[in-house]
Specification:
Blueprint: E1 24-29, E2 32-36, H1 102-113, E3 114-115, E4 125-126, E5 136-137, H2 138-154, H3 161-181, E6 208-209, E7 216-218, H4 223-241, H5 253-271, E8 272-274, E9 281-283, H6 304-321, H7 327-349, E10 362-365, E11 371-374, E12 386-387, H8 392-404, H9 410-424, E13 427-428, E14 431-432, E15 446-447, H10 455-462, H11 474-489, H12 496-509, H13 512-519, E16 529-532, E17 535-538, E18 547-549, E19 555-557
Parallel strand pairs: 12-15
Antiparallel strand pairs: 1-2, 3-4, 5-6, 6-7, 8-9, 10-11, 13-14, 16-17, 17-18, 18-19
Helix pairs in contact: 1-2, 1-12, 2-3, 2-4, 2-12, 2-13, 4-5, 4-6, 5-6, 6-7, 6-8, 8-9, 8-10, 10-11, 10-12, 11-12
Length: about 550
């Protein structure tokens, strides 16, 4: 926590100080910093684990401790203290023009982070660590599928539509290859049965592969990448199915549509687990680990919007792709229990005033109706009680639920409201404060340093602003989202993790994800009114047309 300085060999990002005289906290990358006597930017430290001998940035992380903060191991939150605000007016969404073009960001992402490494295949791989020897992880490939599928859905008339279709299918082929390479062993999906490719392959790939997509490096599936990939596949398939006959669907639509159905089913069976009472069902840390109590939870892995999409997709597509015409109906209540459990988990882990959640937690059933959470668990080298590189993404995953399903948005709005209210206190004249607030008596004890400049922190946190907050005046909220968009727009995509969040935040803040939802028959069917810089975006209720009135007064339909 923020009360003690790091010893040599410990991660010093959250403490931002070193206990040994003559040592400085130097950053290696966004995942690690440690106390060293000297550091040369770009060097590889020979003392690093051989698997992690990658260059150091050597950025000095200065003392940013919270005054008077004390760390109590295993703080327990009291469940049921938050009250859910009423549903926002149906379809009210804030967007901004200041964030820039989502398509331009996708193309930048593809140029910076991807290639087609498999001879004779169109499969496109998204490299973690910006093309260095970071390998291909399911998280990175999931981001690629999410971005390409969402933009394909958002832009049915775009001049680059053929390119968007190609990129989406190429990302899918990379994902499919990862699933095929996961067949041999250790996928932890054998018990439930492989669901993909007529039962030949697990639908949830191992979490890490080499850069040429030839072999597995890290085994077991990770539900965050799996859910993001599903979001991209679902938006692509649903939007393509709605096209008029004049716009021919690509020949790969059936293949991807079937794989998507099977992946939804595999995710439920292999990456979620019931509580002992059966009243709750929670997302695990992956197909092989995590779950209830000391097994550990990552709040940011929960993607209720994707679970709703899977619920509805299985219901509408079971006759075509399921084992029976009623399979989707049987799964619907299971998906609903999973969604409800995710929001109870958020309620148990979220700080009531600041709206923040921890990177990691232990979650327990507290009777038939509630969950309780405590800290004292950590994975991936990030501090458990920090609002950091893991936790921030949870805000975006809830914002996605709000954009996709405004008619079911009460829980999402209740979660996002205090985050937006917190951001209001952090912005002045277009500038963002250097720190976020740490509340006493909740599970978050520290904040990742430089939150407003690290786009994997700022980007997803900013996306809370798409949902109208009961605590922020609407004119002020528009100022905030405009300032957030400008901050995201100022960053280049020149590395994997921050770069990915620049792109994802852009399509969330600028309305692309909202348009993708509308063009997929989701969300926007209730109509949206959000203002953007110099323009107003509005729809008539019951249609999925968004007409944008620009500052010159002309009306264009997007």
């Amino acid at each position: 926590g923020s009360g003690t300085c790091a010893a040599t060999g410990q991660d010093c990002r959250s403490s931002a100080c070193c206990e040994d005289a003559g040592f400085t906290c130097y950053e290696k990358n966004e995942y690690w910093a440690s106390c060293r006597q000297s550091c040369e930017p770009g060097e590889v430290n020979p003392n690093d684990d051989p698997d992690f001998q990658t260059p150091w940035t050597c950025a000095v992380i200065g003392a940013t401790t919270t005054p008077g903060a004390t760390t109590t191991p295993g703080t327990t939150s009291s469940p049921g203290t938050t009250t859910t605000p009423p549903n926002p007016a149906p379809g009210q969404v804030f967007v901004t023009n200041s964030a820039g073009s989502g398509k331009a960001r996708l193309f930048e992402f593809i140029a910076a982070l991807t290639d087609q490494p498999v001879p004779g295949s169109r499969a496109r791989a998204v490299h973690s660590s910006g093309g260095a020897a970071g390998g291909v992880v399911s998280e990175s490939q999931g981001y690629g599928l999410l971005l390409s599928g969402a933009l394909l859905a958002a832009m049915p008339e775009d001049q680059d539509r053929e390119k968007l279709m190609d990129y989406t299918y190429e990302m899918f082929l990379g994902w499919r290859r990862m699933c095929e390479l996961s067949k041999a062993s250790g996928s932890c999906q054998d018990d439930e049965g492989f669901q993909c490719g007529a039962g030949q392959f697990p639908c949830l790939p191992h979490w890490k592969f080499d850069d040429d997509l030839k072999y597995v490096i890290g085994s077991g599936a990770a539900p965050d990448g799996d859910a993001d990939a599903l979001a991209g596949m679902l938006l692509a398939v649903l939007s393509l199915e709605r096209l008029s006959q004049a716009q021919a669907a690509p020949e790969w639509l059936e293949e991807v549509a079937q794989w998507t159905y099977e992946t939804c089913k595999q995710f439920y069976l292999s990456s979620t687990v019931s509580s002992s009472s059966g009243a709750h069902r929670i997302v695990k840390l992956g197909s092989c680990w995590g779950g209830w109590g000391s097994q550990g939870q990552n709040p940011s892995y929960h993607a209720p919007g994707v679970y709703r999409m899977c619920r509805d997709y299985m219901k509408s597509h079971d006759a075509k792709y399921g084992t029976s015409e009623s399979e989707g109906d049987h799964f619907a209540s299971d998906w609903d229990r999973l969604i409800a459990t995710s929001y109870k988990m958020f309620e148990a882990t979220q700080c009531e005033s600041s709206g923040l959640i921890p990177n990691w937690a232990k979650v327990y059933e507290d009777g038939p109706d509630a969950l309780r959470a405590e800290t004292g668990f950590s994975g991936s080298g990030t501090p458990g009680a920090e609002y950091g590189a893991e936790a921030s993404r949870g805000v975006w995953r809830v914002a996605l639920d709000f954009l996709l399903f405004p008619g079911e948005a009460a829980s999402a709005a209740g979660f996002l409201d205090p985050v937006a209210a917190h951001l209001e206190t952090r912005e002045s004249g277009g500038n963002w404060a250097q720190t976020l607030r740490v509340d006493a008596g909740c599970l978050v004890e520290s904040i990742h340093p430089s939150w407003s400049w690290n786009m994997f922190m700022a980007g997803p946190t900013f996306t809370s602003l798409v949902c109208p907050s009961n605590s922020v005046a609407s004119g002020r909220q528009q100022e905030l989202i405009d300032a957030a968009g400008a901050q995201v727009a100022s960053k280049a995509i020149d590395d994997y993790y921050s770069g990915s969040w620049v792109a994802i935040s852009t399509i969330t803040l600028n309305g692309d994800l909202l348009r993708a939802a509308q063009n997929s028959g989701l969300g926007g069917a209730t109509g949206t009114t959000g203002t953007t810089t110099g323009s107003t975006t509005g729809t008539t209720t019951g249609t999925t047309t968004v007409s944008t009135t620009t500052s010159s007064g002309t009306t264009t339909t997007v």
